[in-house]
Amino acid sequence: MTLLADLLSIVFERRYRKSAIRKAKDGRPVKELASDLVGSTGEVSGLAMADELLTRFDMMDDESKLDFFRHIAIKMNIDPEAVRSTLYNYEQNPSRASYRAFMTAAEPRRQELIRRLNEAQGATGALVQMRADLLRLGKGEPELEALDLDFRHLFVSWFNRGFLIARPINWESPAHILEKIIAYEAVHAIGNWEELRRRLEPIDRRCFAFFHPSMPDEPLIFVEVALTKGIPNSVQGLLAEDREYMSAEEADTAVFYSISNCQAGLSNISFGNSLIKQVASDLSAELVGLRTFVTLSPIPELARWLKQEGLEWDLSHPEQMSATAAYYLLNAKRKGGMPFDPVARFHLSNGAIVHAICANADISDKGLAQSGGTMVNYLYDMGKITQNYEHFLTTQKVVSSSTVKSLANSCSILQVQKR
Amino acid sequence: MTLLADLLSIVFERRYRKSAIRKAKDGRPVKELASDLVGSTGEVSGLAMADELLTRFDMMDDESKLDFFRHIAIKMNIDPEAVRSTLYNYEQNPSRASYRAFMTAAEPRRQELIRRLNEAQGATGALVQMRADLLRLGKGEPELEALDLDFRHLFVSWFNRGFLIARPINWESPAHILEKIIAYEAVHAIGNWEELRRRLEPIDRRCFAFFHPSMPDEPLIFVEVALTKGIPNSVQGLLAEDREYMSAEEADTAVFYSISNCQAGLSNISFGNSLIKQVASDLSAELVGLRTFVTLSPIPELARWLKQEGLEWDLSHPEQMSATAAYYLLNAKRKGGMPFDPVARFHLSNGAIVHAICANADISDKGLAQSGGTMVNYLYDMGKITQNYEHFLTTQKVVSSSTVKSLANSCSILQVQKR
Amino acid sequence: MTLLADLLSIVFERRYRKSAIRKAKDGRPVKELASDLVGSTGEVSGLAMADELLTRFDMMDDESKLDFFRHIAIKMNIDPEAVRSTLYNYEQNPSRASYRAFMTAAEPRRQELIRRLNEAQGATGALVQMRADLLRLGKGEPELEALDLDFRHLFVSWFNRGFLIARPINWESPAHILEKIIAYEAVHAIGNWEELRRRLEPIDRRCFAFFHPSMPDEPLIFVEVALTKGIPNSVQGLLAEDREYMSAEEADTAVFYSISNCQAGLSNISFGNSLIKQVASDLSAELVGLRTFVTLSPIPELARWLKQEGLEWDLSHPEQMSATAAYYLLNAKRKGGMPFDPVARFHLSNGAIVHAICANADISDKGLAQSGGTMVNYLYDMGKITQNYEHFLTTQKVVSSSTVKSLANSCSILQVQKR
Amino acid sequence: MTLLADLLSIVFERRYRKSAIRKAKDGRPVKELASDLVGSTGEVSGLAMADELLTRFDMMDDESKLDFFRHIAIKMNIDPEAVRSTLYNYEQNPSRASYRAFMTAAEPRRQELIRRLNEAQGATGALVQMRADLLRLGKGEPELEALDLDFRHLFVSWFNRGFLIARPINWESPAHILEKIIAYEAVHAIGNWEELRRRLEPIDRRCFAFFHPSMPDEPLIFVEVALTKGIPNSVQGLLAEDREYMSAEEADTAVFYSISNCQAGLSNISFGNSLIKQVASDLSAELVGLRTFVTLSPIPELARWLKQEGLEWDLSHPEQMSATAAYYLLNAKRKGGMPFDPVARFHLSNGAIVHAICANADISDKGLAQSGGTMVNYLYDMGKITQNYEHFLTTQKVVSSSTVKSLANSCSILQVQKR
């Protein structure tokens, strides 16, 4: 059976890698391995070297990792002279050969190194981890920031939307995947397996993740969905232990109440947009009663922005908090004109609009600290997404419901401040 | 169950693509679509445009395809001035930003176009087909040959060894895969389903293919294996209708008797080496009795070479044919010093050696025409592969068994000719 | 992954059986093995004996099989004295122990034998084959016909509807399953793989089969479905090589145009009813446009009945043929009052009604010979199935559309004959 | 893909059942439903009635369940007169028809009822649950104990060894299966998910369960295995939190340290023997270094037996405890001659022997209470299993290693007592 075969080979490959990565077998210094790998003419010893290099890197301390990164950043950089002369030749005599020479010169050899490393079985995950190390260690060093661009350039190809697989995550999912959901949940923390079960098992809850075929054990990003009647206005209600379940068929609304990226090494390679759209499309096909797709989102930078603006807030006036939040979401900008709030940037760039402000919607310590408990519903109107995001990207104007607009206008303190 | 989910999503995605790709929905000219796609800032309309463009391309005649290729080859090429100035800036002030600007300038926008096209569901197969068209139509045009290098550059990343999945192909495989095996077999043609069954069903026969997760219905390359006692010396014997089957456990030899590439659009992206090694490794693990890994290979260019050298052959003296073949394999070179014979180049570059010459080993019309029926066993000695191929790639010297060496030395006619 | 494990174990078990069944290892005569197996106190040697016995039976000629059947039919029959005395004890003193003694006495030991044989891995298929042999060889011998009832009694439990799995069969199904579809098609023969493809691959064709988890390679029964607009009136139209395909979403009618039982050894254990209902339910869920579920069925006994009644037919008057067929379906009865026609009995017992007569609907040799090319549409009105079949089973009255009723009334020849 | 289809249908069927079983739709009293179901002539309304009856039963309180059980036990019992007269007819005129009449009369109609109930999708699990209720409620009532024999008779057919599927359970298994492992572990309790992980995830630990295809979410029995070097002599060592893991390839011994039955409703239908043999065989195939298959088993009835014999024990003399345990295992018998200890009966009946006594091997409260912490290794010598169990079942003699024999002989207190 082909399917069986697939699984066997995937499992085999993972096993192979697992054991292979544990023991260094080759005496060559890592830097030498890197040069030899790039120079290697055939696949045979290339695979062994790639394996060896990844194994050795994995066992290094941060000092040695940094040293290795600097080495390849500098020694495997482009040679400007070569770029110039091959470019000149190509201009004089454009041909397959002259173009190839230019391509080779214009791409730093470290890109070829990363590509060759990726040929080892199961290497993709190890390279994602390597980039996570680079991002952590390389901050502020121009050479290493440039090296990161090479990683990113290749990852954009490898983690192409067309290669990703959307999987439901539920209480029938493998435990080793579920423990990662617990670990990676970034918005509303999951304390233990019982809490996890409450998010996955009920018939009115869903969760979906993107996976890459070469990293079948690692979710890349996941979204948690509540199926509800009407748009919810607090996360306490959604996550209440004793709430009543509802049949999925009765739901008219799908609420994306938590989206978490899982891989530090895939920073700046965005999947959230695709995942939301895929999930909305899958749910629509399954549940014909669904009319509304909406988020219940935090406003993570509200408090920070108020402080920066020298403003105070008063938790005892929720309606004022709401007005302030509305004002902030519609008007607070970072340099360049994009919204100040990162979650707003994300959803507005996906074609959502600001639909409603919810006071006292997240009264956890974290929720109170970052936004006085206020949250926001972004609305995904599937028929208008394209139009919305194009309008947003062109004008950077935040579109909102008229209610939110009025609310923002009613924000007295800020209007004073504005004057 | 996650696995179910995987399949569902894969199946869904293919279905979606199938129907989506059929109808053009967007009035924009294709060239405009291409520009807009590269310029598109968000995923939302990008996916729709990619889909549309692939659909439209698929429906074009060759004339229009050629026109499209020329358009993107020329209009989306690098801008040498931009390369030079960004390079200069980078040299003056190496930073993440200046490096990024150089990267962007040094990569033609058509690469970004291909990457964005690949984001559509199931687009990978369509792009492989597009490159097949390009190779067919673009021969001799420097701009199109350069464009092909861009396709190739991206395909090397996407069809990375680490992303490929080796699957056994057998009589329990899906019919729509098996019919492709019939269609793609390039060495010893398969006439119908009964012949196919004789190659797949017997317990002493195996077949393996590489697949890419984004093209689950399309084998990329496959190898057919016979399990035997001793090294076989004719393909007639191997494929005889009435031969006796043997239990796989009794076999001491695995014979790779046919390797076929399936995708014209993946030309020059080599998988054969990896597949042979993977299969040898999997078979060794399964069947501990296997000692010898060997091919029974055609000598496709022997006749052509003899003709080119002005030599005649005489089918009535098989021993002379064998000596001639041995001489040819060890000594006939193309410009640059690599063996004249393409199959020899393939196996020798993989670390195999020339083990034995088999007269009258393929007496089909094709076999007689290309080599007077002579075939060759290349031997894969798993412990010496690395050493062999490194020796070969460094020295270009063909290593052979002493028997073949003697046979080559006994080749009188050619020795005369050499003087 | 549990799923992988499942498959592995299933595959393993089949392989194991395949090799195990080939070689007899135990010197005991088969009859002795049978006694020992029934007497065996533990599973350990029981499994080995069961395997051995099945292997040996498989290698027997018909003579020896018959001898074996007679042996167990007679030597492992009930002992009337034991039945009577345990029954008496149970009546006197009803208890778990006395009931158990009665149960044991009232069940012939050959049932226990069959159950123990079934414990061997993959034995179920071998036992189905054994019953096929029994049905073929045992006709007319009361002891063997009684033995068949024991097989049937156990098979009814083992092939319980709740254990069966409905699988779509399509062009992506494994070749070893598809070749069985070719072999087992009983209504409209499939000549080769190309014909099979025309029935499976088009988007407006479907095929479904029932499988038993212990015989995953053997379909038990399958039904072929055409999705159409309107009710078709000829099989030539349905199966035409050059017909236009239709998108499944546009279809308003699902036509069950062929139902084939696959296992002679499961004779009299009916699955057709369940399969039709399952398929109708699955298709309804998938394709919301479907309104009508109908068959296009042969009238296999029409010619035979006419001959039996001393009537002639005239192919040159199709309208007369239709009237005759209508009359036959509504009025011709076998002893006991059930319809004469076996296909009519099947569909009417499932709750269908006679909907329309189609002249010249199957002009193959077979179609012409059995019914002058006339066919019939039975209609499955999902809302009335229960009511229909209960009415039919109570009254044995054939329900038909008014058109068919008029047609039957117009049948002049037969009306004459009736007087 | 057939596999996909399988899963879909299984999943579908489970879903269907889940929702179907929740609401009663039919006004008829349950007893009437039961009669109608047995009398029902067609599948159509039969399935609906079966579904309804199971749903209604599930919602009953114990009182009503008991009432229902009594009803079918009495009203659907055999009719002795009918048995006698059909038996008489069969003797006079043995034929298919007369045998069939006898079969029908000799089988109580309640068996047919249970079979028909099982035709509903997913009914098997509901019937297992029904029998669990029966065993719980029916104790001591002869009619209900007899009814249980009918359940058991059918379950033996349905849970035939040939239908069971052995699956590995590991940290990649679905969470909803794993939570059942936590719940069902009967020997050494699993407190939480972390403890579960320690039993499943390490590379030197394994777990296997039997499943039935119609109850894919319910393990029937599972066994936990430790891979070790040498035979372990304490469960504390095996389960220590901080122990060092070992590569599975280095192990020479597989220790079955816990076997748990999961389904009260499958009481007296033994799978343990088959599971141990299957697992031993699978592990042998995977890990060629395994030489020894052994248990580390509790001695659950030692304390009870000592008390019954009026003997005292002294935990401060472990060597004395060991001798006592050895004596008990070899000599303590229940009525009929079988060993007093139920775990001993189980393993000895499977062909194991008493290999070694381990003092202080389970110092949990439970371990100390039932056997003063003493445990025992039963040895499965694969080559001698058949011989051992046949010897045991014939002679009821407990075979042990010479060490254990000496130990038993050294048991002074008991020898005194014996005199």
Automatic annotation (TrEMBL), chains A, B, C, D:
One matching Pfam family: MCD
Q: Could you mention a single GO BP entry for this protein?
A: fatty acid biosynthetic process
Domain Malonyl-CoA decarboxylase C-terminal, by residue range, is 162-309, 320-381
Gene3D superfamilies per the UniProt record, alphabetical = Malonyl-CoA decarboxylase, catalytic domain (3.40.630.150), Malonyl-CoA decarboxylase, oligemerization domain (1.20.140.90)
Q: Name one GO molecular function term.
A: malonyl-CoA decarboxylase activity
Give the Malonyl-CoA decarboxylase N-terminal domain ranges: 78-159
Domain of life, per lineage: Bacteria
Protein name, entry field? Decarboxylase
